[in-house]
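Let us work through a complete example step by step.
Step 1: write down the sequence.
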Amino acid sequence: MPRRALAPVLLLLGSLALTAACSTGSTPADSAPSPDGRSRTGGNDTGAQVDLTRLKGVSIVSDSSTDRSCPWATSYPDVPGAGAMTAAMKKDVEGRLAVFLGTDIGGPPSCGGSAGSEGPELNVSFSFLVASGDVLGVRLATVDRTSNADGLDTRTYWYDGAAKKYRPSPGLIADDSRDAFVSALKKRLLKREGVTSDTVEASLGDRENRDAYLDDMAFTADGALKVDFDRDTVGVPPAGRISVTLPKATVTPWLSDFGSRAQQQTTDPDDKLDLGATHTPAPTVAAQPHPGEDTTDCSKVKCIALTFDDGPAAPETGTLLKYLAQYKARATFFVVGQNVATHPDIVRAEMKSGHEIANHSWNHPVLTNLTPAQIRSQLERTTAAIKDATGQEPTLFRPPYGAMDDRVKAATSLSPVLWDVDTLDWKSHDPAKVAQTVISQAEPNDVVLVHDIHPTSVAAVPEILRTLTARGYHFVTVSHLRATL
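Step 2: predict the structure and record it as tokens.
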């Protein structure tokens, strides 16, 4: 947004009334960017509970825009030892983003395939299905709100640590059992409203192409196999998304060796994850020395609030904490819930270093596109993850893209925070440009938006701290800024 196109951020307390640039139409519950209800897996709906402490050295690959006219956010996990699976997710995510922006066909970028259109959104989020023994399972959920899109698309990715291979979902079923498995699926599908023999045969009748429709398969906590189909695949479009669950006794004889291990690790997980990596880097983020009570009076001295969105990220956030500690600077971290669940240690380090932790939703959707229940879920799940990590609940939230309306405000008691200076660091990825944007635009009592998921943005922070400190600025949290003005 243009700088100062809105009233100063501090006036948002009780008086913010923004109109979202994107569509405010509600979304069906089965098309939410993440299912309602909390889960340690960050959205797993198969019934299994993944102990994320098994994931040593994992990093979350995240990117997003702050452009409300073309909002997009993508994220997927990178687990040591599962490089082939990470590469498959990376290829799919980058391909989806290219189509959404229109860069897949050359020419200038366009949002949702239509330059200047209003209302599109792309959101790719993740959840862990299994992370145990030699099995890793991840689901990516994509919400694409372009004019030609059907909404939610889900896909599961599997990694076989014993064979050191990435395996798409059909790899859970033995090759010589594939026909029997598909036959059982067809029988169950034909009992569903909106499903006909023609729609089923169009998707699953061709042996060479049917695997493309079997791209979301995962086990439930009791060993059954749940198969999810996107809208307009095995049924007519009005039927929406359709799922079939085959009981454990039915599906077990058809499983491949890997499928059997994936089933076992879902129902009876081991104590650790071992994917056969030659080494498992596990960078730790240590808390920096706490600067103590902040007695800065922002009504008498020049203050500025640095805010960092979309983290925590490893190792970027740890590096950032060291830079901030060198200047005894405080900041506010607007964290994404799925990343908090994966890196609670980093969030604890942020708090112990004297910084403020605030809510930035579970997986960065446009909140104004969601139903009230979905908005509450996005914020409440993230608040719960923050409390699990730090013992404290946040009091502030930042709506992704600054998208805010009365329904969003009514769904939470958290106080909204926008920004005065947007570094647009997600566009430039240039430390010098990011630093210069802040240094040239910053004024007393400003709130500055940066992202700690980008190493180039973190690299810009020392110059920002050095230059503005020399100009007499004090770096405070948003809450402290509000409290002392």
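Step 3: interpret the result. The first helix runs from residue 83 to 101.
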